[in-house]
Amino acid sequence: MTTTKLTGAEILMKSLLAEGVTTLFGYPGGAIMPVFDALYDYRDRLHHILVRHEQGAIHSAEGYARVSGKVGVCLVTSGPGATNTVTGIADAMLDSTPVVVIAGQVGAKMLGTDAFQECDIVNVTQPITKWAYQIRSAEDVAPAIKKAFYIAQSGRPGPVVLDFTKNAQNETAIYKDSKIGFLRSYEAVPPTSPQSITEAAELINAAKKPLVLIGQGVELGGAQEEVRQLIEKADLPAGCTLLGLSCLPSAHPLNVGMLGMHGSLASNVKTQECDLLIAIGMRFDDRITGNISTYACQAKKIHFDIDPAEINKNVSVDVAVLGNCKETVAQVSALVKPNQHKHWRESFNDHLEKENRIVIEPEVHPSDGPIKMGEVVNKVSTHAHEKAIIVTDVGQNQMMAARYSRFTLNRSIVTSGGMGTMGFGLPAAVGATFGAPERTVCLFVGDGGFQMTIEELGTIMENQCPVKIVLLNNNFLGNVRQWQELFFQRRYSFTHMLSPDYSKIAEAYHIPYRLVTERKGLDVAIQQMLDTNGPYLLEVAVMEEDNVLPMCCPGNDVDDMILDI
Amino acid sequence: MTTEEGKTLYTLIIFSENVAGLLNEITSVFTRRQINIESLNVSASSIEGLHRYTITCWSDECTIKKVNKQIEKKIGVVRSNFFTSTEIYIQEVALFKLSTPKILEHGEISRLIRLHAGKIVEVNPTYAIVTIEGMTNEILSLFHQLMEWDCVLQYVRSGAIAITKDTRELLDEYLVERKKRFLASK
Fold first, then answer.
1. What is the nearest CA distance from B7 to chain A, expressed in angstroms?
2. Does B33 touch chain A (CB under 8 A)?
3. Which of A9, A56, A95, B144 could be a cystine partner for A38, CB 3.0 to 4.6 Å?
């Protein structure tokens, strides 16, 4: 064992390597300079991506984590550097994304004195992190990093903030890699009650009209195959949440579409008719349930989750199966009898057909008029052979991307679900290109969200990140405009937005660009975008006042969906 | 104890690691749900390195279960349990600083102190300090009666502290189970 003393900053480098970190997203500044200085000697092993704003760093770390399943790491300075990551930290908390934010901090002796760029980031982020901790000595660096990575990625993943005082970066200690010991205050995976497994299997065996709700927990637990086997064995129709969309191939015969506000008519209507709801790794968000007091009241409910605090939080359930769904779903599956629910499954068809006729066909295959968002998404999905990672921003672009992308591979949807963070898309797509360099990354973004983090085009330019940016430009903050149309008598209060000349922006950043305004040029442009090495900005002038349908209006019963306006 | 709105007085007994900021994290669970904390007491527990919180609040069973789980989810919190008043033995301490001339003037004040088993711990010509232990309502009753004699110079009440009446020691059992599971997973 070495007895050489290293600075806290050097210990951080060694600790990150010990955690298998290869990529960091960051931005230097005063209180983190010793760390950046140490990083200079580790450039060959720790690939640091210099973003253009700390919000970009955290969203990139999120995108990286979401596609790779590894922890995204973000390195920023104190004060504004740290506070600029707050939105992304909250985003990662709501969407259970494993990220570790390492933020510089003033020296321990200056804490609490309102020193230059001092901000109590531990207190600021405590409610929006899985763990927030201040490192005040060099000895504490290695154990803190070990614990941070363990907490971020184990159990229900989430963000961790490490507030790294400058003295701890400069002081020296002996580096020792250690293992995580017994933590009496943290149990990553709660024990599974064998009774819950039996009861869940019995309910599934007895169900005549079962419906499975697949959430991102399936992706996080790596349980896609186990879930597929369960639904195929017992013939269970399944809907996916927004974040769970790529857990089950879109074309799987048992996949009945996305759940919730802009989900498929069939999955929402059948939620109110099923006799058994089987929720796996999802948390009954209000965008899924609509009016909670009427939500699936007729059904018995099983909830598979790794987080005990999610059980009975929003919806009371009959059987809670705690634990890692990769194991619990397999255990239940073993007790489930092969079954057929032909009539029940066929009863979805009328709704699927109705939605297809009234909503999907006019959106995806319009014969004339302006280009529609769904049409663009559908074509991109087709040209990318349904294999691309789809990153979205937030708003209509997000819902259209979710509704009309088709997924065949796991970990293929990266979107801000719980927080609905506009500006998430572009930096998250940057992160995705590093997290899954072998895959095509397509970003759907609106003109509003694009301008929120547009500075990350600089990161794309410098690193030649192969993000295929599809800018769906409707000159509106489209989703808010849609709500104004529906609920505020078309009083378009500050939702019309003037855009810059994106061709010039693309030119300034040396990013290939093309504008499509006519339907006939769309296919060629998409193919050209996908064929181009490196980044590409494809701007599509889409119908200005298009609406995302169907829609379950806020507070309405989940099966009360409007199909046209 | 139940109010007209169907709210029950719950006592949460929480054990946590002794780390800075955890009190804030725990109380934020209440504030997010707009639950008013009636009393709060934190001190070292009988287990080394663990702090014991006693928090009382009015709530309903459904909500308190969620609060309890959300507290237990915090990294640093070892265990959180909630109890109704019948499941625990609960005590508070109050200190009164009373005017000595008033005590001498009205014999009823001394009688009240004796009636509530108050202890006079310091006396001088200006004031007397009285301590009393008991249930919240007993202490409040003495306070209101003393106020009528206009003799109270200062008054303070500690947060409630509580011991469970269960014959099993839940935390000990929990930690043994947890350790077993941890070793089994290795």
1. 19
2. no
3. A9
The answer to whether the CB atoms of A312 and B66 lie below 8 A apart is yes
Name, in order, each residue with C-beta under 8 angstroms of A313's C-beta and a sequence gap of 6 or more: A283, A284, B66, B69
CATH 3.30.70.20 at B8-89+162-167, yes or no: no
Alpha carbon of A124: minimum distance to chain B alpha carbons (Å): 11
The size of the A-B interface in CB pairs under 8 A is: 48
Residue A368 identity? D
The CATH number, out of the four listed (3.40.50.10680, 3.30.70.1150, 3.40.50.720, 3.40.1160.10), of the domain defined by the range B90-160: 3.30.70.1150
Give one DSSP letter per residue of A391-452, joined into a string.
EE-SSHHHHHHHHH----SSS-EE---SS--TT-HHHHHHHHHHHSTTS-EEEEEEHHHHHH
Answer yes or no: do B182 and A182 touch at CB < 8 A. Answer: yes
Predicted confidence pLDDT, tens digits, chain B (186 residues): 777 678 999 999 999 999 888 999 999 999 999 999 999 999 999 999 999 999 999 999 999 999 999 999 999 999 999 999 999 999 999 999 999 999 999 999 999 999 999 999 999 999 999 999 998 889 999 999 999 999 999 999 998 999 999 888 888 889 999 999 989 887
In chain B, domain spans: 8-89+162-167, 90-160
Number of domains in chain A: 3
- Domain around A121: 5-174
The alpha carbon dihedral of A198, A199, A204, A207 has a sign of positive
What is the domain-level CATH number for residue A165? 3.40.50.970
Q: Which of A24, A15, A285 is nearest to A145 (CA)?
A: A15
SS3 of residue B171 by DSSP? helix
Q: Give the containing element (helix H, strand E) for A210.
A: strand A210-214
Interchain contact, B73 vs A312, CB within 8 Å: no
